[in-house]
Amino acid sequence: MSAEAIRRRPTPLGLAGWNVLFVLTASQALAYVDRVNISVVGPVLIRHNHYTTGAVGLLLFILQLVYTFALLPSGPFVDRVRARVAYPVGVTIWSVATMLCGLTTVFAPLAAFRALVGVGESPMIPAGQRVIAETFPRERRAWAVGIFYAGNKVGLTLGIPFAAILFHALGLSWVFYVTGALGFVWIAWFLLAYRRPADVPPAPEEAGIHWGTLLGYRKTWAIMLGQAGYLYIYYVYATWLPGYLVLQRHMTVLNSGLIGALPFLCGILATIVGGWGSDRLVARGWRVTVARKTFAVGGLLFATLFTLLGAYSTETWPAVTLLTLSIVSFSLSTASIQSIPVDIAPPHVVSSLVSLTTFGANVAACFAPWVTGLLISKGGNFQLPLLVAAAVALVGSGSYAFLVGNLDRRLIAPAR
């Protein structure tokens, strides 16, 4: 083996590193368990509590909208107090709010509690990305990010059947009580697993960068647009796949929970493989720009294609297969897409850049559940919402291909 190959070979992660990675992944899983529980009980609210599909879509939209705007202060908050404080604070808020959702089926208070879930979840991604930036070198970063983001698909894979089983065994309220209580177990694990490293002063050419100056870079806006395409199609599937299986494919709630988990199980593997593949390209000497864009652009392009085909499929199992392939495709892009802000941000503003780009993406993506519900009400089926999701994903792919630019250098402060 050559000296260069030995130099590039990643060092072993160690037990402590694996523990940190697993606890980060578990936070994503818990967040999406606490999101998808309303998707599972949504058909029940429609059938037995006089909700419309638009009202259920609005509940999903409210959480995402509040989460989106809470991202703006959450990044600077994490950069200031660091992840060891910000992470548990956020998980406490969203866990308590989830449990409160079990107290009512009345729209107004339920919407308020779902909004509070969004507030609590907002520090998670900026804090998790900062921990990854502190812990992993560039040639291991997409792999670590892929495992971190695979957690949200673990949450969907486990959360959909878990919520369905809780509903059938204990009733609607206990879906929220049980899923919310899991957050307090996570907090204890995180505090035992993670220790804040020593701060490293920023390099002179990076010292002038702060939250406000990040808005002056074209890369920031281009990443926002690319993530908007990714997150819009992702949230259409994450929030409405159970409803699609029940309302259009006429499955029971329990069957929709079991079958709806399978696409996201495939997505878990694709997310990890996509991160591993991107890092392998970097370790073999590919430019970071080429490695990250190969997966970001390609994954969203194939997601567009499979969603278009699925929208026009009339038979249940071909349609489910095509939509599963779409989930796999955009999952392959996840690690590279989410690694890009960490690749280019100076360490002292990692959380700020992550929160800004995620905020920009969610300004568009937060409309996915609500718009999907309204389009279903208008058209009577899921064809038009799927076509819209495919179009938005295509725009995101184009942004990564043509607008993001060079990813091989970190941002430097603008000249004065």
Could you provide a short overview of the structure?
This protein is an all-alpha fold and 416 residues long. It is 80% helix and 0% strand.
Question: Could you describe the 3D structure shown?
Answer:
With 416 residues, the protein is an all-alpha fold. It has a single domain (15-195, 209-402), classed as MFS general substrate transporter like domains (Growth Hormone, Chain: A), CATH 1.20.1250. Helix content is 80%, strand content 0%. The protein has helices spanning 3-8, 14-48, 53-81, 83-100, 107-121, 124-135, 138-170, 172-193, 218-248, 253-283, 288-311, 316-344, 350-365, 367-379, 383-402. α11 (288-311) packs antiparallel against α15. The protein is globular and about 60 Å long. The N and C termini lie far apart (47 Å). The model is unreliable at 1-10 (pLDDT under 50).
**CATH homologous superfamily annotation:** MFS general substrate transporter like domains
CA-based shape: globular
Give me the CATH fold name: Growth Hormone, Chain: A
Number of strands: 0
Radius of gyration: 20 Å
Keywords:
disordered N terminus, single chain, 416 residues, mainly alpha, 0% strand, Growth Hormone, Chain: A
Could you outline the blueprint of secondary structure elements for this entry?
Blueprint: H1 3-8, H2 14-48, H3 53-81, H4 83-100, H5 107-121, H6 124-135, H7 138-170, H8 172-193, H9 218-248, H10 253-283, H11 288-311, H12 316-344, H13 350-365, H14 367-379, H15 383-402
Helix pairs in contact: 2-3, 2-6, 2-7, 2-8, 2-9, 3-4, 3-5, 3-13, 3-14, 4-5, 4-6, 4-8, 6-7, 6-13, 7-8, 7-10, 7-12, 9-10, 9-12, 9-13, 9-14, 9-15, 10-11, 10-12, 11-12, 11-15, 14-15
